[in-house]
Design a protein that fits this description.
By secondary structure, the chain is an alpha/beta fold. The protein has helices at 71-77, 142-155, 175-184, 197-201, 203-212, 225-232, 237-250, 269-278, 307-317, 360-369, 377-386, 396-400, 417-423, 440-444, 460-465, 468-493; strands at 3-7, 13-17, 24-32, 39-47, 50-57, 61-68, 114-118, 161-165, 189-194, 215-219, 254-260, 282-289, 328-329, 338-345, 351-353, 424-430, 448-451, 457-459. Among the domains are: 24-76; 110-306, TIM Barrel, CATH 3.20.20. It starts with a strand and ends in a 14-residue tail after the last helix. The chain binds iron/sulfur cluster (3 copies). Residues 98-99, 101-105, 107-108, 443-444, 459, 462 line the site of one iron/sulfur cluster.
């Protein structure tokens, strides 16, 4: 503290004191005004062991949001930031700057590990928490699905994962044809992001799902009806358990996807993992602190749930089955976006997190910095593949990449790849950005892209926050309205029998 002597009005000396700032200014980035979405500067500060974003909009004033509850972990995680892989093609030009040129524009720093296809906007639930703001809108056509998939395949040397999403994608009448189209175009893994209702309501749909065999990404927020009523508007526990039993009957690998909200279900993370470890259909749990965009409950941006807090709760609530040290940031995207661990589960229920038997940290550090000695290229490549957004638990990619002969874990190696896939359990935490936490550093390195019907790929967090989702929805609704008018006009001219099928007629 620095002191300066000055005179007061009555001539006695006064001491003015300079104060030490209450935070460390760590870096500057670009973000959005949560009110008007204008792109503005944002400061990242370290304060009382936490990380905050602080920013000012000329019109709407100052905003502060919690980015991470662990400042040390945030700073250290940046060492995992590995060089990106440049896509083979870009769909837009650099014009107005990030995040207004999506995409992908030539300034993007990573290819798309996982592509999302939002094939409709309608849903059979009306969740109070829904970043997609599901409701009336549109279904995409097969022609549009083809444009989207072609764009993805053209940009990737190997198109790894397409996740069908919505709205609720199981309501789209051509879902199975679209999944087949993705496979026909060479996409390696097809995933279905669903609330699961249709699976228990429609036996024929469930049968077809069993034949199509996508990886199921199941909305599953907790093990109490109270949680479902708050987040989904209905007591859904019984339905969700029935969906999982159906998944086991069909032998479909499932990831439980739990939105975690302050004051709602933070206390359920351990129970969800324990439940998942015991259920035959479940290959992992993905926790997602609620993204406060679209529809969401009231919240305090300075008291959000962040990745380190979820990890801390996992350690506390699983009684050490998983420890904080088992989780490692995913280097293919920005390391602040996602952390993951894998465990090997034995017949007697013994759970061995992989980082306890392999020094994952050192291997990933080697991948990043190229300075570590390289005792095993196989293990290095295996870990690089696993700690990526395109690793699909329960898939051959995950099973095939485990080289247990390189470990000291004494696991029986005389098992097939399919059996191994069933023994590998993933626990991951993804902190998607909202208008309060939006950070161009993260979206520029984003490896999760939303395919749009006009052939663009828009990084997921840009799609949800910048206005792209609203623009696409409006354009699609306008297009559908125009097509309906054309169909009606043609119908009137031909006595009610349209001569040609329009895109809307094929919906
Ligand atoms: S997020 Fe990527 S694609 Fe979008 S504008 Fe920024 S750099 Fe370009
Ligand atoms: S969160 Fe999912 S299930 Fe809920 S309304 Fe939105 S799309 Fe439907
Ligand atoms: S989707 Fe969002 S949180 Fe995930 S990698 Fe992209 S920018 Fe990061």
């Amino acid at each position: 503290m620095t002191q300066q002597k000055a005179k007061t009005d009555n001539g006695t000396p006064a001491v003015r004191q300079m104060k030490t700032a209450d935070s460390v200014f760590y870096e500057i980035t670009r973000s959005l005004c949560p009110e008007c979405k204008t792109v503005i500067d944002a400061q990242i500060h370290l304060k009382q062991g936490k990380v905050f974003m602080r920013k000012r909009c000329a019109e709407h004033g100052w905003f502060v949001a919690l980015i991470s509850s662990d400042a040390e972990g945030y700073v250290n995680s940046l060492k995992y930031n590995k060089p990106g892989t440049i896509p083979l093609e870009f769909a837009t030009e650099v014009k107005d700057g990030c995040p207004l040129d999506c995409g992908l524009c030539p300034e993007h720093k990573q290819h798309t590990c996982l592509a999302l296809m939002e094939i409709n906007t309608g849903c059979n639930l009306a969740c109070p928490t829904c970043f997609a703001n599901a409701g009336t809108g549109y279904n995409i056509t097969m022609e549009e699905a083809e444009v989207m998939l072609d764009a993805f395949v053209r940009a990737e040397a190997e198109a790894e994962v397409v996740q069908f999403s919505g709205g609720e994608p199981t309501l789209h009448p051509q879902l199975f044809e679209m999944m087949q189209l993705a496979k026909d175009k060479g996409v390696r893994h097809v995933m279905l992001n669903t609330n699961g209702l249709k699976i228990v309501q429609d036996p024929d749909f469930a049968r077809k799902l069993g034949e199509a065999r996508p990886m199921i990404y199941l909305q599953f927020d907790g093990l109490t009806d109270e949680t479902y009523v708050k987040l989904r508007g209905e007591p859904l526990l019984k339905t969700k358990l029935a969906v999982l039993d159906k998944m086991a009957e069909l032998d479909l690998h499932t990831i439980l996807v739990a939105a975690i909200e302050r004051g709602v279900n933070e206390h359920e993370v351990g129970a969800l993992i324990k439940f998942g470890l015991e259920h035959p259909a479940v290959r992992g749990v993905n926790f997602q602190p609620v993204t406060h965009t679209g529809r969401h409950l009231p919240f305090d941006p300075t008291d959000r749930v962040t990745i380190p807090e979820v990890i801390e709760r996992i350690e506390d609530q699983t009684e050490g089955v998983f420890l904080k040290t088992d989780f490692v940031p995913v280097p293919c995207c920005h390391p602040g976006c996602q952390s993951i661990t894998y465990a090997y589960v034995e017949d007697d229920g013994k759970v061995t997190p992989l980082p306890r038997v392999l020094n994952v940290d050192d291997y990933l550090d080697y991948i990043t910095n190229r300075t570590w000695p390289d005792p095993s290229k196989d293990v290095k490549h295996a870990l690089e593949a696993l700690w990526s957004s395109s690793a699909v638990p329960g898939s051959d990619k995950v099973a095939g990449n485990f080289d247990f002969t390189c470990t000291t874990c004494n696991i029986d190696l005389a098992i097939t790849s399919e059996e191994l896939a069933k023994r590998v359990f993933a626990v991951s935490i993804k902190d998607f950005l909202d208008p309060y936490t939006f950070d161009v550093k993260k979206v520029m390195k984003c490896c999760i892209g939303v395919l749009t019907p006009d052939g663009r790929t828009i990084p997921f967090c840009a799609y949800n926050n910048v206005g792209y989702r609203e623009d696409v929805r409006e354009a699609m609704q306008l297009e559908r309205a125009r097509a309906r008018i054309v169909a009606k006009t043609n119908g009137a001219k031909t006595n009610g029998k349209p001569k040609t099928a329009t895109r809307a007629a094929k919906k």
